[in-house]
Amino acid sequence: MFNKLLIANRGEIALRIIRACHELGVKTVAVYSEADRESLHVRFSDEDVCIGPAPAKDSYLNIPQIISAAEVTGAEAIHPGYGFLAENAEFSEICQRSDIVFVGPNPDQIRSMGDKVTARWTMMDLGVPTVPGSDGVISDLDEGEKVAAEIGFPVMIKASSGGGGKGMRIAPDAASFADMFQAAQTEAGAAFGDPDVYLEKCIVEPKHVEFQVFGDQYGRVVHLGERDCSIQRRHQKLIEEAPSPVLTPELREKMGEAAVKAAKGIDYVGAGTVEFLVDSDGSFYFIEMNTRIQVEHPVTEVTTGLDLVKEQIHVAAGEPLSFPSEIPQVRGHAIEFRVNAEDAFLNFAPCPGLITIFHPPGGPGVRLDTHLYSGYQVPPQYDSLLAKLIVSGRDRHETIVRARHALESFVIEGIKTTIPFLHEITQNDKFVAGGVDTGFVDRFLTERAAD
Ligand code: MV4
To answer: How far, in Å, from the CA of 165 to the mean position of ligand 1?
Structure first.
């Protein structure tokens, strides 16, 4: 096991990684920007290094600064968390060359999934179901029009370097295709320096169901069940749950097998997520694979009893997966609510500022992953995630009842948060019934505005 590990991140995930290291007896090095001097990850780590000014490009994305912080402190490994450098193949490669263990997959695995056309191709080759679409990159408008007509409208135009909904366009019909195709290419070129796009049939009002996968350096790959992340807005997840209310045991088995096939097929090592769209008729399609620990990983921790961050560190240190031959059983139900510094009823406007009062919820089945404290100043430079409230129970109903009380007793004063919005969702009939699709939040907000 490592003696010392550097955490190349901030906020709740930095604290989450520090906790895992503490349990493993690994010393921690925090890095921080000038805006995060008063942050708890700096306070709770064994050592800390300031890596630059507030803007992420000058600090949490500043590769030379982070590598030298690791070298100066003698850290043997770097955990990137999520966001920032977590899926940066070049960073993974520089760590390798600097003899520092990157807690995550190797550069080739990051690249093979970061390029969505390659990922799609790889999955088709492996026999993992993908959305009907183009064979590869479509550069030419005439060819695009021909392929789109074959696929059938509506058609999705996606950036090969995109992901998570960035650089995506829908062409509802042939008449709109040319405009949407060119807009997607231009946007992809500007955003990623790569104008390549590909086409997929548009799955209308799908559910988003993702499988947690894990691989070790000895070729063992397992899945740890799914998370339903259909409650999103503008590709930001708001609520995630496990198990998914829409999967039958048969479908779960088939999708789990496909997820393991996907990860095994690229010799995947570490924590990964295989994302699928699920159609109203129960068809499922691979869309992306994320090669990092995700924000919503606690939902899986609570339903499996595993510590996924500790597992990541074990695997990175060359140890086999810690659980024995059979994969852990999923037990009970868990729902994660993302509390953001945003006014949900003002178009989710960011609301940074001073936290004057902080009172966390508690009780059976309540976990709170947060970096907040009374007197903490939420900086405006980073994403607005304040806390993740993970509620669990024997079944979905018990979980929702606990969640309502937890959200009612969760006090954050000084700034607006999404707590009131999340509480309203827990009282919505369609949410309570379960099995909503990715259009749920927009419909909820439209209906609410009409009332
Ligand atoms: C799609 C789709 C429909 N058909 N692809 C959005 C994020 C990215 N991961 C993929 N996304 C989608 N891809 C096809 N062929 C609909 C979405 C989509 C979506 C997916 C998951 C969760 C929420 C979503 C919200 C809007 C669109």
So the answer is: 6
Q: Could you tell me how many residues make up the chain?
A: 451
Would you state the pLDDT for residue 451? Answer: 86
The structure's pTM equals 0.97
For ligand 1, is residue 206 a contact (CB within 6 Å)?
yes
The answer to whether 146 and 131 have CB atoms below 8 angstroms apart is no
Tell me, using a 6 A CB cutoff, whether residue 152 lines ligand 1.
no
- Give the tens place of pLDDT for each residue, 165-193: 777 999 999 999 999 999 999 999 999 99
Query: What's the order of all strands across the beta sheet hosting 155-163?
Result: 166-171, 155-163, 197-201
133 CB less than 6 Å from ligand 1? no
CATH label, 207-450, candidates 3.40.50.740, 1.10.3720.10, 3.30.470.20, 3.40.50.720: 3.30.470.20
284-307 residue pLDDT tens: 999 999 999 999 999 999 999 999
Distance CA 30, CA 46 (A): 8
Task: Say yes or no: CB of residue 288 within 6 Å of ligand 1.
Answer: yes
Block residue for tokens 């921690």: 28
225 alpha carbon to ligand 1 midpoint, in Å? 21
Cα 439 to averaged position of ligand 1 atoms, centre (Å): 10
**Residue 396 annotated in active site:** no
β-pairing, 221-233 vs 236-242, is antiparallel
The domain ranges of the chain are 4-103, 132-201, 207-450
Element (H, E) at 197: strand 197-201
Q: Does residue 231 line the site of ligand 1, with CB under 6 A?
A: no
C-alpha 164 to ligand 1 mean position (Å): 8
Which atom of ligand 1 is least distant from the CA of 229? Answer: 22
Here the tokens at position 232 are 């999103």
Domain 4-103, CATH: 3.40.50.20
Class (C level, CATH) for 132-201 = alpha beta
| CA 208 – CA 236 distance, rounded (Å) | 12
In the numeric block, which tokens belong to residue 397? Answer: 């109903």
> What would the pLDDT profile of 235-251 be if each residue is shown by its tens digit?
999 999 999 999 999 99
Contacts of 295 (CB under 8 A, 6+ apart): 13, 82, 237, 338, 385, 388
| Catalytic residue (choose from 111, 252, 292, 338) | 292
Strand, coil or helix: 296 = coil
- 187 has which bridge partners? none
